[in-house]
């Protein structure tokens, strides 16, 4: 997917992508909080950056695999077939080594609304926040 660095960042910050999540995606800097990581991961899906999704996924995540080719293809297929409409942060529980972010992702595949609410869990490992898992909320 072609995405201009001068467009608004998909995370909803109202900043340009190049001044918001792109430095995280390029590993120039790392998110200081799990909330920043969560938003940058949403943006990575929106711009089809599978490398960043894989890099920021904890090895205890159910989707984690050492088959990087298959994992990359799965992520890119999801990104290609999904329209990332909006991200809303509902709750952020900040901790030193474990944090939780509850969010609503508004997504569409073709004209089907596949939006969801998730409470995500993040762990800080060697100074870097990683996505561990999440629970869907009805």
From TrEMBL:
Highest taxon, organism lineage: Bacteria
UniProt domain YchJ-like middle NTF2-like: residue ranges: 33-134
Pfam family name, one: SEC-C
Cited PANTHER family: ADENYLATE CYCLASE-ASSOCIATED CAP C-TERMINAL DOMAIN-CONTAINING PROTEIN (PTHR33747:SF1), UPF0225 PROTEIN SCO1677 (PTHR33747)
Full protein name: YchJ family protein (SEC-C domain)
